[in-house]
Design a protein that fits this description.
The chain has about 500 residues and is mainly α. The protein is built from 19 helices and 3 strands.
Length: about 500
């Protein structure tokens, strides 16, 4: 994991000041971060936490006596690109570690954790978002920290559980305080908690029926009934929310009651979210707390429909999983590698530029495609279990015990759905980066699948796991130039644009 972190850190900091301009939404977020330092009031169309973080990074970076070889005044002050990007790069480097920590806490398997961290470090869109002053890195890391703290809370008791629940509430509140869609991380926690209680209540209901059936057999008496009675009592006694082979904190979800959820994962996140707004409202007194939320909602509702006529890179939610419409954050051409790139201005005419610099907000294609297949496999695994019991026992039932992999499947599927399905109803123009909160659970799904293959007794499955891993690593290396904005010839650029919808 130390090697994975060093890899993430190196890729995010290497050539961080390469483009001495504002890339994509840096025209908003880098400026907003600088506005907090210059006390310049402005309207913010999102909660302000990520801009605070960028502003803190600018302030610290401005006091570091190196990495100031190139500067520009595009943020409203004379700043080096490094100053408004380095804090995002550092934060994004930790995301693979947090994903690995969640994987380990779910399973206590180091191999699963290592694969989850490695695959997350080998994704393109997380690398791109970490290298520029954008906000999505903060939604993801705070949301993931909320889930990790929740799992740590479930793994402890009494005061230590309360301690971790408080931190989970703070992290979830910070995720929502970055963008509103951070709320989906919190909704995923509620969904897995509700699912655990539903499973528990179903088992309790089925066991009570068995108990009454057993009691009626006792009343009738007879040697014939005693065999059936003992069999039914054995069936009742075998139920527990988990078995010895199913050691995961998720099995303790029913130890959390309504008070725990409403206080630690309701009131505390709401309180943290409200506190986050205080510095912004002190700076810009145009709107109060309620009015500013009304203005934000109005702003997003006016962004127009989800069509290329509104923005060329609009991509509806169903286009995200297969990555049919990634987007270019930066595109510039030059006559040679030694030619300096303009700070602002259009690229050269077609055919005039021999070198292409492209920063594409695009995932690792094979990581995403394999991950979707793994998620579908997990869904099939969950659905098949009650169906097979129904066919076998001729009645509706659920598995008597949930092993660790069933819990993992339930956790990943519900959290993936919680972060993707709300976008179905969104009619404004949305982009592929909105998928980042959901795709981390895809990374966990493919890591789980590969881990199962590598731990299998069958040589063919172990070979499959190794093959998938090497394909993902090779794809990351192949597409790395368009993640890092390295110079490419037109031929090499077209070689990486497999579909016209990618351009």
């Amino acid at each position: 994991m130390g090697s994975v972190f060093i890899l993430s850190l190196a890729l995010r900091f290497w050539g961080l000041e390469r483009f001495n301009t504002l890339v994509f939404d840096e025209v908003y977020f880098a400026k907003f971060g600088n506005n907090y330092l210059t006390h310049t009031p402005f309207f913010n169309a999102h909660p302000p936490l990520s801009q605070y973080m960028i502003g803190i990074g600018i302030w610290i970076g401005s006091h570091i006596p190196f990495w100031h070889d190139t500067v520009n005044g595009l943020t409203g002050s004379l700043r080096s690109p490094w100053t408004y990007r380095w804090f995002n790069a550092l934060t994004g480097s930790f995301i693979p570690l947090v994903v690995a920590a969640i994987a380990y806490q779910l399973s206590y398997r180091r191999s699963f954790a290592l694969l989850a961290g490695l695959f997350t470090a080998c994704d393109g869109i997380f690398l791109v978002e970490s290298r520029y002053a954008l906000s999505n890195i903060y939604i993801v890391i705070f949301g993931l920290l909320g889930h990790w703290f929740l799992l740590l809370a479930l793994d402890n008791q009494n005061r230590r559980r309360s301690f971790w629940l408080i931190f989970a509430g703070i992290a979830f509140g910070a995720s929502v305080g970055t963008k509103w869609n951070g709320l989906w991380f919190l909704s995923g926690a509620y969904l897995i908690w509700i699912a655990a209680w539903v499973i528990y209540l179903i088992h309790s209901f089925l066991n009570s029926k068995l108990f009454f059936a057993s009691s009626s057999l006792k009343e009738t008496g007879g040697s014939e009934s005693r065999g059936a009675e003992s069999a039914q009592e054995a069936e009742v006694s075998t139920y527990s929310p988990s078995s010895p082979s199913s050691q995961t904190p998720l099995q303790n979800l029913t130890q959390l009651n309504v008070f725990h959820m409403l206080f630690y994962l309701g009131i505390i996140p709401a309180l943290i979210y409200s506190i986050i707004w205080i510095p912004h409202l002190q700076l810009d007194k145009t709107y109060g707390f309620i009015a500013v939320h009304q203005q934000i909602l109005k702003f997003h509702l006016q962004l127009g429909g989800n069509s290329p006529n509104v923005h060329p890179y609009c991509a509806a939610w169903y286009k995200w999983p297969l990555m049919t419409r990634p987007m270019a954050y930066y595109y510039q051409t030059a006559k040679s590698i030694t030619e300096p790139l303009p700070v602002m201005g259009p690229p050269l005419p077609n055919g005039a530029g021999q070198v292409i610099y492209d920063v594409h907000a695009m995932g690792n294609p094979f990581l995403w495609w394999f991950g979707v297949a793994a998620m579908l496999f997990l869904i099939g695994m969950l659905v098949s279990q009650p169906i097979s019991l129904w066919v076998k026992e001729k009645r509706f039932s659920v598995p008597t015990t949930l092993n660790v992999d069933t819990w993992i499947a339930l956790y990943l599927v519900l959290n993936y759905a919680a972060n993707l399905l709300p976008w179905v109803k969104v009619t404004r123009c949305v982009f592929i980066y909105h998928y980042m909160c959901a795709v981390v659970f895809i990374f966990l799904a493919i890591a789980w699948f590969v881990d199962q293959c590598l731990r299998s007794y069958y040589q063919q499955l172990r070979a499959l796991g190794v093959t998938i891993t090497f394909i993902i690593l090779a794809a990351f290396i192949f597409w790395m130039p368009i993640y890092l904005g390295l110079p490419l010839s037109p031929h090499d650029y077209k070689l990486r644009m497999w579909f016209t919808s990618w351009i």
